[in-house]
Amino acid sequence: MIHSFNRKFLLIRQGAAFLLVAGAGHRFSLCIESPSGECCQGIEPDDLLVVSAPEGGEPEAAVMLIELLRRFHTPLLVLPKDHPGSRRLRYVVSAGPVIRADCSIRRGTHPEQHLICASAGLTGISLCGVPGGCEIRDLPTGAIAEEYGAAGPEPER
Amino acid sequence: MCSVGGPMDIEFSERVKGKDYKCKDCGEKFKGLGKKPVCPSCQSDNVAEA
C-alpha cells in the first residue's frame, strides 16, 4: 500500500501503540551519538523519519521529535546496553530509506537505523520511502493507518 | 513484547560502522553512513572518503 504524505504525517496504530511517519523532505546529516562514537547518516529527501511509541503516548510529542530531526537536525542519542534510562523512553526514533518495526530489541540502545522498537502488535511492518510518501508492507491485521495533523511548511528540498 | 526489563534482547553482530570522510567545502572530518553522506558541519554533500 502506497501512502502519500500530502504535507501530513502518517499515523499507524494498534491499541495504544503507534508509529508516526514523515518524509525527510530535504537532504541533511543526521548524527548518531553512541557509546562507541559518532556516525553521521546522510538523509535523502525521500527517506523516512519514524517515531515509535510502543506503549502509547501522545502523537503530538512524536510530531515534535520528528521536527527536531527534520527541521533542527538534532542528533540521535543511543544508550549503552542495559542503561537504566532505556525503560523510561516512551518514544524512539529511526531514519532511513527503509525501516522495519521490531519488538525484540531494547529501546534506545541500537544505532541501526533500519530497525525501530515497536509493540508486538505492530512488529513486522516495513516502511519504505518513495517520492512524496511511503510504501507500507506487512500491515498487521487490526492495525490502522491514517493521516495525522499538518506537517507544517514543506521543508526545502 | 519489547524487551525493556525482560530477558529478550538481540545482540547485533554487525554494528554500525561508518567510513571516514572529509568535507571538501569546510574541511570537517567525520564518520559517515548511507549512500550519500552529508557533512554534519555545513550540510554539504561535497565530501570524499578520507
Structure characterization notes:
The complex is a heterodimer of chains A (157) and B (50). Chain A starts with a strand and ends in a 9-residue tail after the last strand. In chain A, strand 11 and strand 12 (133-137) form a beta hairpin. Chain A is globular and about 40 Å long. Chain A is 8% helix and 42% strand. The longest helix of chain A is centred in the middle third of the chain and has 12 residues, at 59-70. By secondary structure, chain A is mainly beta. Chain B is mainly β and 50 residues long. Chain B has a domain at 19-49. Chain B has strands at 19-23, 29-33, 47-49. In chain B, a hairpin with a 5-residue loop joins strand 1 and strand 2. Chain B starts with 18 loop residues before the first strand and ends with a strand. The chains are: A mainly beta (157), B mainly beta (50). The A-B interface holds A 27-29, 31-32, 34, 36-44, 54-55, 73, 81, 86-87, 96, 103-107, 110-113, 117-120 and B 1-5, 8-10, 12, 15-16, 18, 30-40, 43, 45. Strand 5 (37-43) of chain A pairs parallel with strand 2 (29-33) of chain B, so a sheet runs across the interface.
